[in-house]
Amino acid sequence: MLSKYIYIIILPALFITGCTNQPVTEEVNLYTARKEHLIRPLLDIFETDTGIKVNIVSAKTKVLIKKIIDEGKTSPADLLITVDAGNLYKAKIRGISQEIKSDKINKLIPENLRDKEGHWYGLSIRSRVIMYNPKNVDSKEIMNYEDLANPALKNRVCIRSSSNIYNQSLLASLIHHNGEKSALAWAKGVVNNFSRDPKGNDRGQMAAVVLGKCDVTLANTYYLGKWISSKKDTEREYAKKIKVLFPNQDNRGSHINISGALVTKNSKNKANAVKLIEFLASDKAQEIYSKQNHEYPIRPNIKVSDVVKLWGYPFKMDSLNLTILGDLNDKAGKIFDIAKWK
Ligand code: FE
User: Fold this and answer.
1) How far apart are CA 152 and CA 155, in angstroms?
2) How far, in Å, from the CA of 125 to the mean position of ligand 1?
3) S-S: 187 plus which of 51, 197, 301, 339, CB 3.0-4.6 Å?
4) How far, in Å, are 146, 246, 259 from residue 151 at the CA level?
5) 14 falls in which pLDDT band (50, 70, 90)?
6) What is the pTM of this model?
7) Angle, helix 233-240 to helix 221-228, in steps of 10 degrees
């Protein structure tokens, strides 16, 4: 009889404490190599729409990948966002990602912008284009990436180092389209045309063009967007003195790359991580994201920023599957070494 009373008292008590110990807030932990101010406005909308809280850890790609590996099974990371298919490919090779099966995501994200095995997904597009000084270059001189190796450009080309993933991915695309021999001849030709040893980042090359230290360079499109919309007078002035040329418009299209996301192998909130990718690929998020970053949306039906339109949109994009950039990254590195592209 006594035991019956104990059950009656204890069971409801257990039920109540059990409930209060449950985590009330749904969350997802995002490790991101993108600056927080660029994605925070989007994440705020996601939080309001879904009630899922997004916790952010920001650092450089290499740091985040190492952190996820070091943390192993105890890693709180659910999602990694970074730039360049080459980086996402490397993260997958290092075993920190997992395959996602979502028809919704596959419908939203074009096939060429995602990993062939479903490990990573493109969320924005950037193009690596030719930028030049219109005072010194006739735009008809240069039509294709291949033309950067033309002897007419001797001592006129400045490009950043071959250790840069953007250049590695571009060379990977040239290997894919033209073959290894031709890619090596191209790299040697470009090195021959260097106006100086590679140094600095994309904006450093663009500044060198503006300041007459070289005539032609390669840079990602959004950097010009940053200059045009900059608070700094000098950057807005610089932007007026450089022109964009979309290469290979009469053939395969200009080289593109992505920023993208993967779900980590040891994610504890996988369903929420998948929801976040679905949201970031949605029309609503795409429009905000591309405007914020001066990048291109992943689907042509989404509007681009007015700034981005200034130097030409739409343009023909190379449609190769970006997984190939990762597949050919090692070969690209070797070719850069043989060509003595520092
Ligand atoms: Fe960049």
Assistant:
1) 9
2) 12
3) 339
4) 11, 20, 34
5) very low
6) 0.90
7) 130
Q: What is the CA(220)–ligand 1 centre distance, in A?
A: 7
The residue count for the chain: 342
Instruction: State in Å: Cα 126 to ligand 1 middle.
Output: 9
CA 36 vs. chain centroid, Å, equals: 15
Structure-block tokens of residue 250: 């009469």
Residue range 92-116, pLDDT digits in tens: 999 999 999 999 999 999 999 999 9
Cβ atoms 275, 52 nearer than 8 A: yes
pLDDT in tens, 112-171: 999 999 999 999 999 999 999 999 998 788 999 999 999 999 999 999 999 999 999 999
Please report which helix (H) or strand (E) contains residue 15, including its range: helix 2-21
CA of 239 to the centre of ligand 1 (A): 17
Please provide residue 87's backbone torsions phi and psi, each rounded to the nearest 5 degrees: -70, -45
Ligand 1 center–CA 203 separation, angstroms? 9
Instruction: Output the pLDDT for position 21.
Output: 56
